[in-house]
Amino acid sequence: MSQRSSASTTPVGVTLRDDPRHPLYLGKWKRPSKPDLEEFIHDDFDEPHRKRQKAILAAHPEVRQLYGNEPLTAVIGAAAALVQLVAAYYIGCVWTGLHWSVVVAIAYFLGGTVSALYGVIIHEAGHNLVFKWPFLNRLTGLLVNTPMVVPISQSFRRYHLEHHQFQGVEGKDPDLPLDSEIHLIHNNPLLKTLWVFCYSVMYIVRGMAMKKQPQRWELVNMAFIICVDMLIVRYMSLRSLAYLGVSVFFGYGMHPGAAHFIQEHYVFRDGQETYSYYGSGNIFYLNIGLHNEHHDFPQIPWTRIWKLRRIATEFYDPLYAHTSWIWVIVNFIASPMLGPQSRLVRLYQAHTSGRREYRVPPPTESSDTLLAEKASSAY
User: Are 188 and 254 contacting, i.e. CB atoms less than 8 angstroms apart?
Assistant: First the structure.
């Protein structure tokens, strides 16, 4: 589209101005002061990550050495898939006398925990961070998708990359809640609890609302999972398939391993639209909590993302970050100021004009001083 291509060049006669958000790229916007508002927070600038990446690279060019792939991710994915398939076999074919409440408990504590890890690995594969060859990353996504009952890996890859490209852009970012979610849920604690439980379903509904035709790899994903599900029922049991499905429902809903879906972009502070998590959950979930770092540098795999955090500490220390995924969920549900509407949005025109008309200033002594001051007064 001509409108999109114009965003990559500066129009003749337009003088680039320094982006006033430099060097941290925090906005000047404020969160709503009243809990009864049922609309997104609005900004008139482009998303901050591409420019913060340039600012960090200007100060720390060695960050480029962290780019690359991590094949270990595929090994972890295969092991995680095997764990759930073995559990499904025992629950559906061996431990058939287990009470349904025990099965549900296993589905939450074991199945939900492992299923949440699948999403992290699919995420890495979606960015081609597992292998250099994109085809092998596609296969990694399919492998990890095997015990998940529903086809998700290739659609997630498609829509997640669009989320990176159009973060917060109304009508283009598939990660944004729908208007119906806002009007129905808003800040009601009971409805927010139900909404968090059903977050996996809402992800599917948001994708469907985009009304896009499935691409070839999405069709392959669908056919593959249908065959896998049939084989599970044929050689295990329907009970096995049900266990896997309930596990995914838990792992993408009311589970600490799924809290990063709320942690990442729901607004907890004025001027900041992306948030990281620096708690112990990163150990099992492959550093998925380092979301500011990931959006700044999606070329860096999970095994090296902490190195970025340590190298560019003056850029990340001043940013607010979470330390507890459980508290993220509790706070989101309990606070009348938080709900599906607690997201920052921008018009596509603002997104493109922000990139066309505002530049990343070259590093200066004054910008270094400003970073040091903000780091010293960090949350």
Answer: no
CA distance 44 to 51: 15
CA separation, residue 368 to residues 58, 75, 310, 363, 375 (Å): 12, 41, 17, 7, 11
Cis preceding linkage at 48, omega within 30 = no
> Model's pTM, two decimal places?
0.92
**What per-residue confidence (pLDDT) applies to 125?**
98
How far, in Å, CA of 350 to CA of 17, rounded? 15
Find the range with the poorest average confidence among 19-23, 199-203, 262-266, 363-367: 363-367
- The dihedral through the CA atoms of 108, 113, 116, 118 has a sign that is negative
Q: Which residues pair with 41 in a beta bridge?
A: 344
Cα–Cα distance for residue pair 210/198, rounded to 1 Å: 19
Closest by CA to 262, choosing from 320, 161, 339, 335, is: 339
In sequence order, what are the residues at sequence separation of 6 or more whose Cβ sits closer than 8 angstroms to the Cβ of residue 2?
none
pLDDT digits (tens, 9 = 90+) for 92-129: 999 999 999 999 999 999 999 999 999 999 999 999 99
Tell me which long-range contacts 95-99 makes (C-beta under 8 A, separation of at least 24): 96/239
The dihedral through the CA atoms of 80, 83, 85, 91 has a sign that is negative
Alpha helix stretches (DSSP H) within 198-343: 199-209, 216-235, 238-251, 260-263, 281-284, 291-296, 305-311, 313-316, 325-334
Tell me the three state secondary structure of residue 325: helix
Q: How far apart are alpha carbons 148 and 247 in whole angstroms? A: 8
